[in-house]
């Protein structure tokens, strides 16, 4: 069973306007929900200098709107689980959500992941599971005494890299952001942009803007995965999750909302879709009961 041994009614992945609106509506309808995402809510929202098209909130900065969102979910007692989901598997009557060393279970899911994920490197998808991974703490034991490259897109990747470096023979860190890096002394930092992952049956090297690194394994630690990597079997159309008017995907019990379902990339549209996705998930659960 899940970490707490319970199976949630609805698991929501993402804390932008779509995920938060879905959480609010599922909670109003007394569903047992779990919301995964960042305590900072939406990184994209904070960057908006002015928001003028969100009904009822005229002339606010993105940061001010974010604070209203935060106050709303706090008032409703909705907490955020700050854990990265690595994979979601449809198990028939429930979904298994894999987080590093734990599994959560939910009867239905709402994907509200936005479009913040980076494009895969050349060769990345071809070598996934053949030396390329997205969870360093899960797979580190496979590389005991071997060479590993971690391409990190955020501060959290540093912790995973330190964990890996204690098991691996040699660890390289390729940061995709600027800042101070809190890394073990045995981690070598390489400040060159990665271009391609090379290998036939297994990873052999990563090619950088300047030079290359011969390696046994590569971990790509992005802020979020593309939906097709996150949920195997999910139907994608032109780079977005394919949904119907009820926000239902091709997988029963799985809904999607917000930027990940397509344009226009607007907060109002995302919130509206989050509402619909929650209502659809609720009616799916109610009909399953009957």
From TrEMBL:
Which controlled-vocabulary keywords does the entry list? Flavoprotein, Oxidoreductase
**InterPro entries from the xrefs?**
FAD/NAD-bd_sf (IPR036188), FAD/NAD-binding_dom (IPR023753), Ferredoxin-NADP_redctase_2 (IPR050097)
Q: Entry's Gene3D superfamilies?
A: FAD/NAD(P)-binding domain (3.50.50.60)
**Where do the FAD/NAD(P)-binding domain residues begin and end?**
8-152, 224-274
Q: Does the keyword Lipid metabolism apply?
A: no
What are the recorded GO MF terms, alphabetically?
oxidoreductase activity
Name-wise, this protein is Thioredoxin reductase
* Organism the protein comes from: Clostridium tagluense
């Amino acid at each position: 069973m899940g970490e707490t041994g319970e199976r949630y009614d609805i698991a929501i992945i993402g804390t932008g306007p779509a995920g938060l609106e879905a959480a609010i509506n599922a909670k109003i309808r007394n569903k047992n929900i779990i919301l995964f995402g960042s305590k900072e809510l939406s990184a994209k929202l904070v960057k908006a200098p002015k928001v003028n098209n969100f009904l009822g909130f005229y002339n606010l900065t993105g940061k001010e709107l974010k604070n209203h969102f935060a106050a709303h979910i706090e008032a409703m007692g909705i907490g955020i689980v700050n854990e990265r989901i690595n994979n979601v598997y449809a198990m028939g009557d429930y979904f298994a959500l894999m987080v590093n060393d734990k599994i959560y279970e939910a009867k239905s899911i709402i994907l509200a992941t936005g479009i913040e994920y980076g494009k895969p490197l050349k060769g990345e998808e071809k070598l996934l599971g053949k030396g390329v991974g997205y969870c360093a703490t899960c797979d580190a034991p496979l590389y005991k005494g071997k060479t590993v490259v971690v391409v990190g897109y955020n501060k959290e990747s540093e912790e995973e890299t330190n964990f890996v470096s204690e098991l691996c023979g040699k660890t390289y860190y390729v940061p995709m952001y600027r800042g101070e890096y809190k890394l073990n002394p045995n981690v070598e930092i390489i400040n060159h942009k990665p271009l391609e992952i090379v290998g036939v049956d297994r990873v052999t090297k990563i090619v950088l803007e300047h030079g290359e690194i011969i390696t046994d394994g590569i971990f790509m630690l992005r802020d979020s995965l593309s939906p097709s990597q996150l949920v195997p079997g999910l139907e994608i159309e032109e780079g977005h999750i394919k949904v119907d008017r009820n926000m239902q995907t091709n997988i029963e019990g799985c809904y999607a909302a917000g930027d990940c379902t397509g344009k226009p990339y607007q907060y109002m549209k995302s919130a509206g879709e989050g509402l619909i996705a929650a209502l659809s998930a609720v009616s799916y659960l109610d009909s399953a009961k009957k």
